[in-house]
Amino acid sequence: MSITNEIAGSLSKLTRGVEQIRSEQITRGDVEQMVAESVAQTRDAGDGDGYRPGGSARSGATRAGRDAAWLREGIIHARTGLTTGDSGLGEAVSPAQFIGGLWDRLAARSIVLASGATIVETDQSQIHMPAVTGASTAAWRNEGQAITETIPPGDTIEVKPTKLAAIVRISREATDDSANANPATAALSIASQVLIRDSALKLDAGLLAGSGTAPEPRGLRTLPGAQSVTAPNGADLDSLDPFADAITLSESADALPGAFYLAPEVWGKLLKLHESDDSVRPVIVDGAAGPTGEVARSLFGVPVFLSSQIDTDESIGSTSGGCTYGYLVEPRQLMAVRREDARVEVDYSAAFGSDEVLVRIVSRWGFAVPNPESVVKIPLKLAP
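and the corresponding structure tokens:
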């Protein structure tokens, strides 16, 4: 085989590796071996005196080395995408870059998803969910006695996922220089993490307190049919009684309470509750652990999840400001409808005039609770 053919074969092999990564047919680990073999083959070919049309064999080996370095980065993989328009040269030569593996990180940072909410996948612009709003009538019958027919009442819930998106702008110099210094602190990596965190927080904000006015989903705060602990002016946080009442309401509706969603300020006040005025022993203490021991984040065995996206300055009844809501839910009854995975795109051409890089995150979500009685709102008063 000629040197030119060897180089062409090596570069073709690298190209196939790139395409397979793009289509997610193979993993990065599978490509590593391919890269090593291709670079070695191309280097050997480049040591000769052969000639490749358009450049020397040595330049072919250098190009292969650059391609191998790109593959080894492993964090960003390219997929064909439009960056400057719907047609023309921009479409052909300016593909966006995508950073993969973001869905798992988003789920870990969103308390609603992390608590076990049901993820409903769809590839349509909207989804219809059947919901049973009552129960059939079961009864004991004598032998041969007719069984009364009933039709369980039901309804259809329509959910239309909407876009959750954000963009940040970074100078190209910061992008290039930080990547060369330390990949872990690269500007693109940091920007991506900021976008992931912000999207997860905004997702929680929508699922917890969304107004239902487009494009926001309707969250637990404004959910029609949800139960509420009786506290017209907000319950004082001087005991755990409001949370015990919430569990009673949930189980009375045949729900399985599985998670409390609270503001961090509420949990902070609960940690300060003492067994009595004369005791320094906290009410929330795990087993035999003392006041300085680690405290399990749960109430009456129900896990507690904290979110900064819960408003802590609401007015409830005659209490003006300084109030908030906690929520007790059965997570599997919360339907998070996902139309499009969270993805991060990097574009080097849109801000060409200022020589900057744009990083964007986009996803599409909807939210529904087929059984609203499985949700219990807990009005709480933070101020004394």
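(Above: one complete record from the training split.) The longest strand covers residues 335-347.
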